[in-house]
Amino acid sequence: MPTDWTSRDSSFPLHIDVSSGPLTQRRLYRVTGVDGAGVPTLTLCGNGQDADGVAHANVQDGAGGFVGPGSIYLACPGFPVRVEAGAAFASGATLQSDANGRAITKTTGTGILRALEAAGAAGDYVWAVWLSGR
User: Fold this and answer.
1) Which residues, other chains included, contact 55 with Cβ-Cβ below 8 Å and sequence gap of 6+?
2) pLDDT digit string (tens) for the chain, length 134 residues
3) Which of these, 122, 121, 86, lies nearest to 112 by C-alpha position?
4) Are the beta carbons of 122 and 100 closer than 8 angstroms?
5) What is the CA radius of gyration of the chain?
6) Residue whose C-alpha is closest to residue 16's, from 49, 47, 43
7) pTM
8) CA-based, 20 to 30 A from 3: which of 79, 119, 121, 126?
């Protein structure tokens, strides 16, 4: 195990490659591969896809490089996170990702979160708890 959060010489991924595009705060992301240095790369979740994390902060397109563990919260069952709603839903609803990485009521996709509070409309930031984590 690494001894600090800046080590990249370990099999434990401490950094995420964001050179392929921006991260949008409170949206859901999935790891889709690794770069040439073995660092995980992220893609915005599509409709019904499982998620590996939620962005904590915006990272601008073209910023390139890497973000540390404070920029994305990894999916850990039971861990509460704030997510952006894609539509209104009730507290207690099982949630999935919409096509834009926002949380919506589960219909046909993978249930990845449980709402801890209701969302009144798309764009609301609400608390939810992870149900999954690949």
Assistant:
1) 23, 24, 25, 26, 27, 29, 71, 72
2) 333 334 444 444 455 656 556 778 889 988 888 777 777 778 889 999 999 888 877 766 544 455 555 567 778 888 899 999 999 999 999 999 999 999 999 998 789 999 999 999 999 999 999 996 55
3) 86
4) no
5) 15
6) 43
7) 0.78
8) 79
